[in-house]
Structure formats: C-alpha cells, structure tokens
Write a structure and sequence with these properties.
The chain has 2 domains: 16-257, 3-Layer(aba) Sandwich (Aspartate Aminotransferase, domain 2); 261-378, Aspartate Aminotransferase, domain 1 (Alpha-Beta Complex). Helix content is 43%, strand content 15%. The chain is built from 13 helices and 15 strands. It has a 7-stranded mixed sheet, sandwiched between helices. Strands 11-12-15-14 form a 4-stranded antiparallel sheet. Helix 5 packs parallel to helix 6 (147-157) and helix 12 runs antiparallel to helix 13 (367-378). The two termini are 29 Å apart.
Length: 380
C-alpha cells in the first residue's frame, strides 16, 4: 500500500491545518463572521503581494481571471499583445478572439522563454495596443518568463499599455516580477502554491488598471470588477463567493507567514533542483534548461519509454500522480509538480518512483546516480 501523493502542477496537496479551516460549519456569505474572514483574506493577500490596494476575489478558475482582466479593460476592435509559448499563452489569444479583440502574438518556441528583443520589437510595432498579456510561469512547458526585464521595457516604450500577468502557477513560489509601477493586473489561483482546492481566483490591480476599467463600457455582469470593488467596500462580494476556500486561504496565509517568503522561495528553488537534476541523471531530457520554473519540472523520458505509460505506471505502482503534456507536448512529456505543500522528500520520492519505473520499463538503471545527484539539495 502506498499513500496517494499529488505531485501535479495543480491541483496540489492541502495541509491539514488548511483542511481543518475549511471543515468548520458553513458560513453564510452575508454574515458578519464571513465578512471578517473576507477582510482577513484581503489583508493577507496585500501582505503576500506587497500591494496597498485590496485584491478582488472571483469564484472561478484562473481562466476566469484571465477573461475578467480582458473583458473589463478592452472593447471589440482593441489590439492586444500576447506571449504564446505554451498552452496557457495560447489561451490569451483564444479569450481575446472570443471578445472581438485583435491579437498580436509573440510566438516563442515551446520550452524557451520570451526575450526582451522579441518583446521590444512587438511593442514598438503595436504601441497603441491596449494590453500586453503574458504568463510568469508557463505551466505547460515549465518555463519561467523573465518578466523583471520585460515589463519595464513595455512600460518604457508604451506607458499606457496595460501589463497583465498570469501568475497562477508562479505566485508564492517565486518573487513577484514587479510592482504596480510595472504590473497592472496580477492573477493568482487557489489550486497551485496556495495549496487550496480549485475555485478561487485572486486579482490585484494597479491604479492605471482601475482607471482604464472605469472608462471601459461594461460588457459582463458576473465578472464586473467595478461591481466587485464596490461590494468589497461594504465587506462583501457581489456574488456568492468561494467562502469555504477563503477560510482555507486565511490558514494558508498563516503558514506562509510562519515559513517566511524568502524561505518559501528558497524551498521552491531547492525542489526544482532536485527534480531537474534527478530527472537528468535518470537519462531524461529536461525542459526549460535556460529558464527553469520553480513550481513544476517537465522532461522527456529516456528513449524507448512512453511518457504516458511512465506516468500511469508510477501512479499504479507507487501512488504518485504526475502530469502529462498539453498541446504540442501531449503524450510526449512528464511534468512533476513541486509547488505549495511539498518538501524535498516528496520530490525525492517522485524521482525514486520515476527511476524504479523507468528501470521496470527497460529504459535503463540510473537510480543510484539520480539519488546521488539529488541529495545535496535534500540535506540541510
């Protein structure tokens, strides 16, 4: 018998303290008790993000947050610039086209980060575009885009162009890549490093973003961010919130405070090194070698080992659930999630299970070599 370990890039494992916070009797979302929980959630997110303004909570997955960002700031016919370096980068185009926007894509090789040169060229070509939309971590290819360099470049060339960052799989694994001076809308999701169930999306917005939203005709009801801001000023949300998850969020923020942000970021860097160095020693081709993501590692298995078979056998034999590829990488790669409630031994267990399974599938026996490669990042 093996314990079930959820090492996917979302949803992720949930700490016991967070589970207990969500097991309390159901709160009515208009009650004073829940209003206090919502206020705690706002204060906790302000601390985590380092922003003075209150966040907006939406009861949806991260894709809903992406759509809300665009439908509140853009009108049909507006131009936007997007970075397409994976399945989630492509989603910006899908949303934009549904909303009647003109989408200019920066096409990036899957597994590579977007460059300052690519960004500069596109923004200079379309300086009147309403928004620049990008992932911080492209979950499907395990790439971390260098937004610390990109976003100031966008701001310098086109000061009024909104910068919208999907940080759903990056938030709480690596420092924010900017402040409200360079990021206008920052999107996070509950089911990643927050170690919560899916269903809560969090948006932080700059003053420039709010100014644009105020001047944009409203074309949505449920995702109306002005309505949400007005409701929040009264201590409520406009619609029925993910109230149980918000109670869990407050427990998760407590855990973040106890560990400390720098320690959290350092832990995720260690977990990434364990996964990457272990997989490489097993004979796998690791993705995103130039821009590794601290939340998830992707790799192509050794020759002769099918990626989906490897994942399936790891789950059947050892109880560890991994993720597969998406889009171009469907059936070709394995992704190991190591964000949120994950420690070095969880990641080491994943490498061990992957190594044992590769050996059983006839793909070589490099487990001892892999463990030796991992141990320096496990020891304290």
């Amino acid at each position: 018998m093996y314990k079930e370990r959820l090492l996917t890039p979302g949803p992720t494992m949930i700490p016991q303290r967070v589970l207990q916070a969500m097991e309390r009797p159901m709160l009515h979302h208009r009650s004073d008790v829940f209003k206090k929980e919502l206020a705690r959630g706002c204060e906790g997110i302000r601390w985590l993000f380092g922003w003075n303004s209150d966040p907006i909570f939406l009861a949806c997955s991260g894709t809903g947050g992406m759509e809300a960002a665009l439908v509140n700031t853009c009108q049909p016919g507006d131009e936007i610039i997007t970075v397409n370096g994976g399945s989630f980068g492509a989603r910006w185009r899908q949303i934009g086209e549904r909303l009647g926007l003109v989408v200019h894509e920066i096409m990036v090789d899957w597994g590579s980060p977007v460059t300052v040169e690519q960004t500069r060229a596109m923004v200079e070509a379309h300086p009147k575009a309403k928004a620049f939309c990008v992932q911080h971590s492209e979950t499907s290819t395990t790439v971390l885009h260098p937004l610390e360099s990109l976003l100031p470049e966008v701001r310098k060339i086109a000061p009024e162009m909104l910068t919208i960052v999907d940080a759903i799989s990056a938030c709480a694994t690596t420092p924010m890549p900017g402040t409200p001076s360079t990021i206008d809308i920052y999107i996070a999701g509950s089911q990643k490093a927050f170690s919560l169930p899916p269903g809560l999306t969090i948006l932080a917005l700059s003053e420039q973003a709010w100014s644009i939203i105020e001047s944009t005709p409203r074309r949505t009801l449920y995702f109306d961010l002005l309505l949400e801001r007005k409701s929040l000023s009264a201590g409520e949300t406009s619609w029925t919130p993910a109230s149980t998850i918000i109670c869990g969020l407050n427990a998760a923020i407590e855990l973040f405070r106890e560990e400390g942000l720098e320690a959290i970021y350092a832990r995720h860097r260690r977990l990434s090194r364990i996964a990457r160095e272990g997989a490489s020693a097993l004979g796998c081709q690791v993705l995103a070698t130039d821009a590794p993501c601290p939340s998830v590692t992707g790799f192509i298995p050794p020759t002769g080992v099918d990626a989906d078979t490897l994942r399936s056998e790891v789950r059947k034999r050892y109880g560890i659930r991994l993720a597969g590829g998406q889009g171009k990488f469907n059936g070709a790669i394995v992704r190991v999630g190591h964000m949120g409630f994950v420690d070095p031994f969880d990641t080491l267990n994943a490498i061990t299970a992957i190594g044992l399974t590769i050996r059983a599938l006839g793909g070589g026996d490099e487990l001892s070599k892999a463990l030796i490669a991992c141990l320096p990042n496990v020891e304290v």
